[in-house]
């Protein structure tokens, strides 16, 4: 077999690719099936960070300059420890909104975490009282925001059954 591979390098390449593919598939199935549910499927850290851009001398912009970052909770228990409050009612197809500060207060965050019925974060809702472009949508009221605003839902998991069934 080794002499065949030496005489025909294309066959050696194909055999190497097949073996590599097999090892990759075995590893990926092993890692996927070993999820013990201890961590949220979006990862172990939820980080919200802003970026900014500055204009250089040649008129170009350089992005990625970080202004601040904040680690957000992944479970409702973590959120409660950080003084987040989950809304009592679940919005079908969305989930439970939660707020760190009351909407319309001076210290209100411009986003709301969205939890499912298992108390795991499944998304984030950004809102603005100022008009925003696509993909933001104008909303009359949503969750803890009982007034007209612009909103953007970002889901990390399917929210179809977020209310538990």
TrEMBL record:
Alphabetically ordered keywords of this record: Membrane, Transmembrane, Transmembrane helix
Q: Where are the transmembrane segments?
A: 12-32
Q: What is this protein called?
A: Uncharacterized protein
Q: What is the lineage of its organism?
A: unclassified sequences, metagenomes, ecological metagenomes
């Amino acid at each position: 077999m080794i002499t065949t591979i030496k005489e025909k390098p294309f066959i050696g390449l194909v055999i190497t690719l097949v073996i590599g593919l097999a090892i990759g598939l075995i590893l990926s199935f092993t890692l996927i099936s070993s999820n013990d549910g201890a961590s949220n499927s979006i990862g172990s850290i939820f980080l919200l960070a802003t970026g900014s851009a500055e204009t250089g001398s040649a008129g170009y912009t350089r992005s990625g300059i970080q202004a601040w970052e904040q680690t957000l909770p992944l479970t409702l228990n973590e959120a409660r420890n950080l003084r987040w409050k989950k809304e009592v009612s679940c919005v079908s197809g969305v989930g439970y909104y939660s707020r760190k500060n009351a909407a319309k207060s001076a210290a209100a965050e411009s986003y709301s975490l969205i939890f499912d019925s298992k108390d795991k974060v499944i998304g984030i809702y950004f809102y603005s009282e100022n008009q925003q472009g696509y993909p933001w949508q104008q909303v009359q009221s949503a969750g803890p925001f009982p007034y007209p605003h612009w909103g953007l839902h970002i889901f990390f998991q399917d929210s179809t059954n977020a209310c538990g069934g």
